[in-house]
Amino acid sequence: MGAGLTGSTIARCLADAGREVLVLERRSEVGGNVRDSRHESGVRIGHHGPHYFRCSSLRIWDFANRFAEFRPVQPRILALVDGTYEDWPITSEMSPASAASISFNGGTNSGRANS
Ligand SMILES: Cc1cc2nc3c(=O)[nH]c(=O)nc-3n(C[C@H](O)[C@H](O)[C@H](O)COP(=O)(O)OP(=O)(O)OC[C@H]3O[C@@H](n4cnc5c(N)ncnc54)[C@H](O)[C@@H]3O)c2cc1C
Which atom of ligand 1 is nearest to 54's Cα? Predict the structure, then answer.
């Protein structure tokens, strides 16, 4: 019941095991909350919000790659300091001079800016 991730995965596994499967979906489109489509500009747009795929299981990763292409994502946590985005947390790898230039109370700031 339902052609979201759960229903589709169960249906696929049953079909792979040789069972006959009928998926019933109440919407006019499949995918559930992970539904997306490609805009005419070429940009892929999530209908219900953007999604990241994270897993530590090679078996699940191989399964998912049968049906979709993925692009690597490298998330970074940044701190907004005086209007500038800084790497967070501040580590010992940051030079003392750079660390000293960071101000949390309105002073100067020479860190990297990111968008
Ligand atoms: C904005 C947003 C961002 C998210 N980001 C992430 C992310 O980055 N990474 C991540 O892993 N997860 C993310 N999630 C969670 C992820 O989307 C859900 O865990 C996943 O889509 C759930 O899949 P599902 O098949 O269980 O449910 P759904 O996607 O809700 O699918 C259920 C389907 O069943 C259909 N259905 C329901 N009732 C009936 C019925 N009675 N008869 C017929 N059809 C029915 C529905 O129409 C729907 O298509 C996000 C969710 C949202 C909303």
Answer: 11
Number of residues written out for the chain = 115
Residues 53-80: tens digit of each pLDDT: 888 999 999 999 999 888 888 888 888 8
Residue 73: closest CA among 47, 54, 90? 54
Q: How many CB atoms lie within 10 A of CB 86?
A: 21
Tens-place pLDDT, residues 21-42: 999 999 999 999 999 999 999 9
Q: Which strand (E) or helix (H) includes residue 36?
A: strand 36-38
Residue nearest to atom 23 of ligand 1 (CA): 5
Secondary structure (H, E, C), 62-99: HHHCCCCCCCCCCCCCEEEECCEEEECCCCCCCCHHHH
Rounded distance, CA 40 to CA 91, Å? Answer: 43
Count CB neighbours of 32 within 10 A.
Answer: 17
Contact criterion met (CB below 8 Å) for 3 and 9: no
